[in-house]
Amino acid sequence: xxxxxxxxxxxxxxxxxxxxxxxxxxxxxxxxxxxxxxxxxxxxxxxxxxxxxxxxxxxxxxxxxxxxxxxxxxxxxxxxxxxxxxxxxxxxxxxxxxxxxxxxxxxxxxxxxxxxxxxxxxxxxxxxxxxxxx
Length: 134
What we know:
Elements: H1 23-34, E1 41-42, H2 43-50, H3 55-65, E2 74-75, H4 86-96, E3 100-101, E4 113-114, H5 116-119
Parallel strand pairs: 1-2
Antiparallel strand pairs: 3-4
Helix pairs in contact: 1-2, 1-3, 2-3
């Protein structure tokens, strides 16, 4: 860990004021750091990659500590943007060239969604060093 990740909540919920992160949180944030620009992993993908926890546990970690990592790369499985952070995330996606698809005409605010088929990262190919995790 090269940076201080304590008290780095994304959703405005204060993170616990501890000297160090729980081990699971550190592991989740390490995976988020691995996701390449222009690609995403779902909360469930991260849990599966770790072989521990589930989507809710990963989501909780991201809510409490996610601002210390590229939080916009860990997403909901349906491709909707994080409520309350849509415009910030959309800016990152556009800057990184993350595949998007238009919002349905009846969608609130007409915010695009992620094109999950094209943006989803498998944790192996196209990433840092293009190496499999161990």
